[in-house]
Amino acid sequence: MEIRTRIELSTMMFLQFFIWGAWAVTMGTYLNAIGFRGTDIGSAYSTTAWAAIVSPFFVGMVADRFFSAEKVMGVLHLLGAVLMYWASTITEPGKFFWVLLGYALCYMPTLALVNAIAFHQMKDPGKEFPGIRVLGTLGWIVAGLIIGFLKIEPTAIPLKIAAGMSLAMGVYSFFLPNTPPKGKGKKVAVRDVLGLDALGLMKDRSFAVFVACSLLICIPLAFYYNFTNLFLNESGVANAAGKMTMGQMSEVVFMLVMPFFFVRLGVKYMLLCGMVAWAARYLLFAFGNNEALVFMFYLGILLHGICYDFFFVVGQIYVDREAPEEIRANAQGFIALITYGAGMVVGAKVSGLMVDLFAEYELVDGVEKAVGHQWTNIWVIPAIMAGVVIVFFALLFRDKPAPENAAATAETE
Questions:
Q1: Domain containing 22: what range?
Q2: In the chain, N or C terminus with fewer CB closer than 10 Å?
Q3: Do residues 253 and 260 touch, judged by C-beta distance below 8 A?
Q4: For the whole model, what pTM was predicted?
Q5: Continuous H helices in 151-293
Q6: What CA–CA distances, in Å, run from 185 to 146, 181, 295?
Q7: How many Å apart are CA 173 and CA 178, to the nearest integer?
Q8: pLDDT digits (tens, 9 = 90+) for 231-278
Q9: CATH code where residue 248 lies
């Protein structure tokens, strides 16, 4: 790959994930500050999950068939910039949800499009893609560090920053290398878009257990994504957004060492490690504090590398291994629909209800706002949920002997 192309693709990844990291981490803190209840905050976060369910239709049946990927992405980011800025001006929960859903419907398809653009320019994606994709993680980290440094977490400014960067990304997209529609002239069925051909894999008990546990574990997972920043701010942790980027830093580290563990532990025990890490993280949050036990908060954040890599990435490797070659793409789409879509939608609802249940409300300037939460009670709930899934998975899942190229597969993810 030419140096110029590598720089273009790396910049694309940096901007793509800077946008998401700029608004998603601290939105709960901002919405709580303007009087949104936990269920309202959960609903706001569910927009990306709803969009994750819808976006495969758009990408598979429109973007992949009629238009160049970089042009579609440019238009979506420009529309997204307008919608995100509009959302930053709204203080009514119902209206905020629908405008943010419109934004999410613009943003989520671009996650597939940036990958399509990158892969189209690569001769050896297994070697070239990780070095490009890591710039996305760096973009998320930089966004968090900037917002934390500026101390703007409880304000609408992060949403405005995301809108501005989305505008920049929209313009930049039109200058990216041409990526013609790969599905032009081909017929695409709904079952292909949703990966329904992968349902046949559910005849295998272990695969069915894996799918069920993937769905169920995403319910407690939503607690972290939706409410950790609010929790840390209410606990008095300075620069919470900046410190939460330690999770992405650990993600990079554990991605690098994953092949080492994959060979020694296998799929079952790596997936269990990921699930146990989620339960442990919530217990650390529940019983730590911002004084002598503040290290428990930081350790909970640092567990993100194991939580994400050992569950989601290993899960993708497992699906790739179990699915016949002709339906592997369908199978990956199906598990993404189960986790990032259905699981996160339910998780957003449940987490919002639990946060409301343990909220402490007061009238502030004539508006009833949550001025605090019983966080120990809140965090114990997803810890118990994760614990139940762990037991279910450990008892019922049986791992097949890994093929000889399993380590190589892990290295390319």
A1: 1-177
A2: N
A3: no
A4: 0.87
A5: 157-173, 190-194, 205-234, 240-244, 246-287
A6: 45, 9, 57
A7: 10
A8: 999 999 999 999 999 999 998 888 888 888 888 888 899 999 999 999
A9: 1.20.1250.20
